Amino acid sequence: MFVLVNLKAYPCDPVAVAEAAERVATEHGADVAIAPQAAHIQAVAQSGAETWAQHVSPVGHGSHTGSTLAEAAADAGAVGTLLNHSENRLKLADIDASLDAAERAELSTVVCANNPDQIAAAAALGPDAVAVEPPELIGTGTPVSQADPDIVRDAVAATKRVDPEIEVYCGAGISTGEDIAAAEELGADGVLLASGVAKAADPQAALEALVD
Amino acid sequence: MFVLVNLKAYPCDPVAVAEAAERVATEHGADVAIAPQAAHIQAVAQSGAETWAQHVSPVGHGSHTGSTLAEAAADAGAVGTLLNHSENRLKLADIDASLDAAERAELSTVVCANNPDQIAAAAALGPDAVAVEPPELIGTGTPVSQADPDIVRDAVAATKRVDPEIEVYCGAGISTGEDIAAAEELGADGVLLASGVAKAADPQAALEALVD
Amino acid sequence: MFVLVNLKAYPCDPVAVAEAAERVATEHGADVAIAPQAAHIQAVAQSGAETWAQHVSPVGHGSHTGSTLAEAAADAGAVGTLLNHSENRLKLADIDASLDAAERAELSTVVCANNPDQIAAAAALGPDAVAVEPPELIGTGTPVSQADPDIVRDAVAATKRVDPEIEVYCGAGISTGEDIAAAEELGADGVLLASGVAKAADPQAALEALVD
Amino acid sequence: MFVLVNLKAYPCDPVAVAEAAERVATEHGADVAIAPQAAHIQAVAQSGAETWAQHVSPVGHGSHTGSTLAEAAADAGAVGTLLNHSENRLKLADIDASLDAAERAELSTVVCANNPDQIAAAAALGPDAVAVEPPELIGTGTPVSQADPDIVRDAVAATKRVDPEIEVYCGAGISTGEDIAAAEELGADGVLLASGVAKAADPQAALEALVD
After folding, report:
1. C134, C174 in Cβ contact below 8 A?
2. Which structural domains are found in chain C, ordered by start?
3. C172 vs B126: CA distance, rounded Å
4. What are the tens digits of pLDDT across the range B5-34?
5. With an 8 Å Cβ cutoff, is D121 touching chain A?
6. Facing residues of A169 across strands?
7. Within chain C, how many helices (H) and strands (E) appear?
8. Which of A19, A50, A85, A178 is an active site residue?
9. What ipTM did this prediction achieve?
């Protein structure tokens, strides 16, 4: 199971979380990555943790002031990117163009969406993975795998109908190892986490509780 | 005169440009800053050059995936930020909120706009500086100070009517020391540059030609 | 005092509200206008009521599918338009361009904003009027004139400093004649209303209570 | 073959075009519809022509100033709506929500997209039809069926893999009966037209040339 910790714009120390993730990844053989603010990618990547961008813009090199260039994120150390997170919804055409941008920069891609229909739509654009995160469960502490197991099952089925190679992650409310086990049982290949780790008093303990 | 070099999403080496800027700033006593991609802020700031963000989001700490948090930009070494560049136009309410965000993170602020009316509007929101850049002249090589001197004069007058403390920069087509001198004569306190330096074969020579 | 009733996307009968407004305007000599959905402008205007658009796009004639063309709104009978309502915030450059579009179509203009700084910014763009509506009071039933009289006073002062000819309206929570009188005393030239009339069981009675 | 004439924000007389469409539909047994500005829906529908909206917002009844409410469009006489036109690209989540809104208002739906991948994505959201319109051919006079027949064939194949019930239209550069015949041969069920009819000196003749 892939564990992607989204630091959003939280007031955490991104390097401390990254170092905790790196230790947990090494000690437990877990597949853990950290998605910090773009301005923190370099510092997080230098910690040795697998580093992701939270977003890349649907553009290539050129006159795009204020964009988040995929090549710049890769340059700073990112190896993947989230796209279309519920806090950063994109136009359909821009998800397509951001996927192209990420591919040019050799970043792995996860396209988020709300429900199985949108997951199928996202899958049709050819990302490496999709992630279903019911917005109403984000930040609630109630795991999606328990509150709405069907949405995970349906997202997996919808994705595999489009392309069995695309991985499926789920998010919202995941905070324990049991939540991850439940997600895996529903067919998910990974999970998205955020506040449960980023806001934890002890991020390493929080991550260990997950991957054990 | 303040010289802000906007690297946009250009395929330049941001650290090489920053080092050139830092040498020119030191050797010529010039006031030069570099605005790279957010993911390059840390590397650029580590070169010793004055580093600016190209944009910050109208948010504070919180659940804002994919945002450009002012605090993260500051953390990585930025001391100022552009806002509302013509390639990244913002909602009026978001310029206001991004100015608040920048102030919380102790970033200097320059709000860009197209014409004197919009410059007056931008000034009313209380930035440290405004910048007038007629979009039709961006990237043309024809300096605004020559193609449309009245827009610079009118922008200065409009700004000073709102608040004489707010500095006024101009941009578009600036590439020689004469362009800068002309801008200064029109009342500008600084200039915005981009391709003229970022795409130059020898950025240091390009900057020296400007500040001499 | 000008009374502008914004029907938003409420499930009301726009013609019934317009006819009530027209009767109240005629019988009480009141200055009342109705802002329906664009698709309802023609039917509302045919009722004889003064009809406003809720928004016009920052474009002129051309290839702009899905835009709200100022000329089409005027054609259908609108004589004015709201711009930058808190439910439809616009880019600074687009407020400027929408004002140009409205002027070409001979529509009166009211630019909404949250606070006195943004009101000054809006005024700098040269609309016929501005409207201050603290978003946190919209739909509360607590009139802005009572909850935050200073914001109205400051908005009036900020506007008059820019151009004494620009009218100032206020909105949020206005539902009684006393609220309107209080707004007038604070210097406002008009008020924006919405649910208090649009969702009233008897819109005519609701309007009469206001203008008496 | 369904022929949808998108009037965009063109300076045409929408009722004159609608009357021409209505005559051609009646005399030639053709399936022709007109998509005017929202503010013109009522006048166009009253001409007897089949009337479509150019866009509906991803909202239901409520506090949505400046939205294009599907129910208001239907009320005024629209029976269908375009969504995600290349001049009005929408967020993936908003296409989904606008489809829900259109369904509640009993409007037929056509979701536009640039390329077969995006067409498959659009189809996954369950519209009545999709339309492929390569942006680079819009307004060129070169029919997509001739310039890029594969994009039409691939769009048809991609759609039918998702759901054989979903119709496929194509657009860009269609202006003659031969273009329509070619589109039909490639598997399209309809075409989108715009300037060829809307800007024609004689819209009826332009439409007759198409449907003959």
Report:
1. no
2. 2-211 (3.20.20.70)
3. 26
4. 999 999 999 999 999 999 999 999 989 999
5. yes
6. A131, A190
7. 10, 8
8. A85
9. 0.96
